[in-house]
Design brief:
The complex is a heterodimer of chains A (about 290) and B (about 280).
Chain A (H helix, E strand, L loop, with lengths): L3 E7 L7 H17 L4 E3 L14 H4 L9 H6 L4 E9 L5 E9 L2 E7 L11 H4 L9 E3 L2 E7 L6 H9 L4 E6 L6 E2 L3 E2 L1 H16 L2 E6 L1 E4 L2 E4 L3 E3 L5 E4 L6 E7 L1 H10 L8 H16 L9
Parallel strand pairs in A: 1-2, 2-3, 7-8, 8-11
Antiparallel strand pairs in A: 1-16, 3-4, 4-5, 6-7, 9-10, 11-14, 12-13, 14-15
Chain B lengths: L9 H17 L5 E5 L4 H14 L4 E5 L7 H14 L2 E4 L3 H11 L4 H22 L2 E3 L5 H6 L20 H11 L3 H5 L12 H5 L3 H13 L4 H6 L4 H13 L30
Parallel strand pairs in B: 1-2, 1-4, 2-3
The chains are: A alpha/beta (about 290), B alpha/beta (about 280).
Chain lengths: ~290, ~280
């Protein structure tokens, strides 16, 4: 990969107000451009807010919606990775991350794991994505995950195996208060998870989490960029809106993958074989190809 | 008895709660809060948080004594008003309560206490209209879970910054916010009749019950495990009964579903809808 300057936009989207949020995105994209960033990364559902419930279909847009044109237009000058409710085929609504570049949508990730437990109810409102794909960009190959997706470790591994050098993680992660040892509880937990992900996949990891309040939920922020050795490149404090530009260095990726050839030494065929066995035992399905 | 994890980071908690107050107030288009100051810990902490969040000039405190209210309740509330430099007024609710009693007939002290709490609610909501303000809540998590409060009375508010903090955690926050020591250290009381004490009435201390609630509710520990950890079977049963028996106080009235889309069932919007 080549070195790229990435802006992390830790914002508080306005709940259910697409127009206001598009305006905020355009302002920050302008700022990113002025400050020499190649890309601005926004949080999960950055164009709509999180606690939508029955508003989900109201704010859903197909990716060719005219309302998204200004963002596409802006992407001729600077890339953007945004979160929105995507209306897909069959009027399914996806919690999607959309990468805009050169006036086009070049990559879409539909959230795979919709948390529906505790304070979360996403499974009621969204259809789950069922694909993990990487995208090749001029500076390198990227993969995108949304919040809960990164808690299922095969996802990051699959993206890395598929060539991802940078993993973008978009979050709307709420806090559960603040403890004496840790401060805002969710932030150190996320940082541990992301550091580990960067180390396990020897990939650059960029996490952008939102802040602000919706009903009593408060979103923790703590956006962070981590290099493939698991070292913090930069981060934004918890709870408050913030903005940070980091440089993801191509040379560091090369050194990390030389020092720790974990991707090279991965055993895809073994994973495939054992997955097939577990699948057969659990679901009574025939074994996949036996020729591996 | 193994202590549950009740420690909070008071500084970060203050950041979260003051941000909550600002955000939830300002999205309504209003800029002021009214709060009933009882002289006790909970309303003092809510008021301190509001003053930190908004500045003292945007808080209007209302002191609402009844003729049997203790003198300390009023002087301690005044202490908070003075310390924060917030605006305040006193509305004596004796005439309202007596008017109700005259109209309805004699009532025992529990009913009378509920009438007092609802008279205070009536005053607060009326003054919130006059002040173009929201009513700030002052119920803590312990009393919300145990149902130790009056439905449509002290449990009524527009936003409640301390509703997810146990009483012992409210006390930790109070020390951080430098609430006057007199208010922090006095025995908790609803002051609905002379010498009333929360802990006498409940039959356990807040420290005990908060530890038990943190196990049962937050850590989802089974009642049997709570007993193994040193809580008496009687206390565990009593607390479970208080929680289940007061569920109605934590929900809107039940609505019978007879249409395709019903409030409370499948008409689902956040409270912050379009605000």
């Amino acid at each position: 990969m080549q070195t790229v300057r990435v802006a992390l936009a830790q914002i508080a989207p306005k709940l259910g107000d697409l127009q206001a949020n598009i305006g905020m995105h355009l302002d920050l994209l302008r700022r990113g451009r002025e400050e020499g960033a190649g890309l601005v990364v926004f949080p999960e559902l950055s164009l709509t807010g999180y606690l939508l419930k029955d508003q989900t279909p109201d704010v859903a847009r197909t990716l060719d919606s005219p309302e998204l044109k200004p963002l596409l237009e802006s992407s001729r000058h600077i890339d953007a990775l945004v979160g929105l409710v995507e209306e897909g085929e069959g009027h399914r609504f996806y919690n999607s991350a959309v990468y805009l570049s050169g006036g086009k949508v070049v990559h879409v990730h539909r959230k795979i794991h919709l948390p529906t437990y505790g304070m979360f109810d996403e499974g009621r409102d969204f259809a789950a994505g069922d694909q993990l794909r990487t995208a090749g960009l001029p500076f390198g190959r990227i993969g995108t995950l949304i919040c809960e997706d990164v808690w299922h470790s095969p996802n990051a591994w699959l993206l890395a195996q598929d060539g991802a050098e940078i993993l973008f993680v978009l979050g709307s992660g709420p806090t559960r208060g603040a403890r004496p040892e840790t401060g805002v509880t969710s932030v150190p937990v996320w940082h541990d998870l992301l550091r580990t992900t960067a180390q396990f996949q020897t990939a650059q990891v960029v996490y952008v989490n939102r802040v602000g309040y919706e009903d009593g939920l408060n979103f923790g922020g703590g956006s962070i960029a981590i290099d493939p050795f698991g070292r913090e490149i930069g981060s934004i404090p918890a709870l408050l809106e913030g903005w940070l530009i980091v440089e993801l260095e191509g040379e560091v990726l090369r050194r990390a993958r030389t020092a720790y050839p974990l991707l090279r030494d991965a055993r895809l065929e073994l994973v495939y074989r054992e997955m097939g066995r577990i699948r057969t035992e659990r679901f009574g399905l025939p074994e996949p190809d036996q020729d591996l | 008895m193994r202590e549950a994890d009740l420690g909070i980071d008071p500084s970060a908690t203050t950041d979260i709660l003051t941000g909550f107050i600002r955000s939830e107030l300002e999205r309504t288009g209003l800029s002021r809060l009214v709060v009933g100051l009882s002289g006790g810990l909970d309303s003092a902490v809510s008021t301190y948080l509001a003053a930190v969040a908004l500045g003292p000039e945007r808080i209007h405190a209302v002191l609402m004594p009844y003729r049997s209210s203790s003198r300390e309740s009023l002087t301690d509330a005044a202490l908070v008003v003075d310390a924060l430099g917030i605006g305040s007024e006193t509305v004596n609710i004796t005439a309202m309560v007596e008017g109700c009693r005259e109209s309805v007939g004699e009532m025992d002290r529990l009913r009378l206490g509920n009438v007092m709490a609802r008279c205070r609610m009536t005053v607060l909501y009326d003054l919130s209209a006059r002040e173009k303000a929201l009513v700030l809540g002052t119920s803590n998590k312990t009393e919300i879970l145990l149902g130790y409060g009056t439905l449509h009375g002290d449990m009524a508010s527009a936003l409640n910054p301390i509703g997810d903090l146990y009483k012992t955690q409210v006390r930790q926050l109070a020390r951080h916010l430098q609430v006057p020591d007199l208010v922090v250290s006095k025995p908790p009381s609803a002051d609905l009749w002379p010498d009333q004490s929360d802990e006498d009435e409940l039959g356990f201390t807040y420290e005990e019950v908060d530890n038990l609630l943190a196990l049962l509710v937050d850590a989802r520990v089974s009642p049997a495990t709570a007993v193994e950890k040193g809580f008496s079977r009687e206390m565990v049963d009593r607390v479970l009964n208080l929680i289940t028996g007061s569920q109605f106080k934590r929900r809107l009235p039940v609505i019978a579903k007879v249409s395709t889309r019903s409030v409370g069932w499948d008409f689902r919007y956040p409270r912050d809808w379009k605000s």
